[in-house]
Amino acid sequence: MVGWLKPNLAKMKGVKHYKRDGTEHKGGTHKMPNGHLHSNKSHTKTSVRLFHFKDLSKKAKLKARGKK
């Protein structure tokens, strides 16, 4: 079962992750048991959920692109 995970992880290398407001996250990440990606290498009280660009709101996408 673990074997199928490695190709999927390789596909995700270099994919940008964003906070809900469109701010790009460049630090460590961890995956929660429910499959959501969060900031920080391990879960802390400051961890926030991260998103792919396609999953952001229209307003957050504009911020991510550097537009107001």
How would you portray this structure in words?
This protein is α+β, with helices and mostly antiparallel strands. Helices cover 22% and strands 15% of the residues. It is built from 2 helices and 4 strands, in the order H-E-E-E-E-H. The strands form 2 sheets. A two-stranded antiparallel sheet has the order 1-2. A two-stranded antiparallel sheet has the order 3-4. A hairpin with a 5-residue loop joins strand 1 and strand 2. The protein is elongated. The termini are far apart. The model has no long low-confidence stretch (mean pLDDT 86).
Number of DSSP-assigned strands: 4
Strand and helix order: HEEEEH
Instruction: Provide the spatial order of strands within the biggest beta sheet.
Output: 1-2
Q: Helix coverage percent of residues?
A: 10-25%
Global geometry: elongated
Terminal residue distance: 44 Å
How would a textbook summarize the main sheet?
2 strands, antiparallel
Classify the beta-strand content into a percent band.
5-15%
Number of helices: 2
What class do helices, strands and sheet pairing give?
alpha+beta
**Rg value:** 13 Å
- The average pLDDT value, as a whole number, equals 86
Low-confidence stretches: none
